[in-house]
Amino acid sequence: MPVRRFRSFEEARQALWTEPDDPALLERLKRLGELARPVDRPRGVFRYRTIGEAKAARNRPSHR
């Protein structure tokens, strides 16, 4: 994604605006919905005896 620069907040606000009939609107909403999806990991902080155990736990599929 390219970096865009704006001279004012109004220019930035206009760049975020999407027309209701814009074909890209559906794709933007889909990406936004994917961000809101819950993360499939157990909650909390876990302690491991070795780095190997921690790496194995990270690669293991979670069980909820």
Structure overview:
This protein is mainly alpha-helical. It has a domain of 38 residues. The protein has three helices and no strands. It is elongated.
What topology emerges from the helices and strands here?
Blueprint: H1 9-16, H2 24-36, H3 51-59
Write down the overall mean pLDDT. 84
Main pleated-sheet profile: none
Give the helix/strand class. mainly alpha
Q: Please state roughly what percent of the residues sit in beta strands, choosing from under 5%, 5-15%, 15-25%, 25-35%, 35-45% or over 45%.
A: under 5%
How many alpha or pi helices?
3
Summarize the entry for a quick read.
This protein is an all-alpha fold and 64 residues long. The protein has helices spanning 9-16, 24-36, 51-59.
What structural keywords apply?
64 residues, mainly alpha, 47% helix, elongated
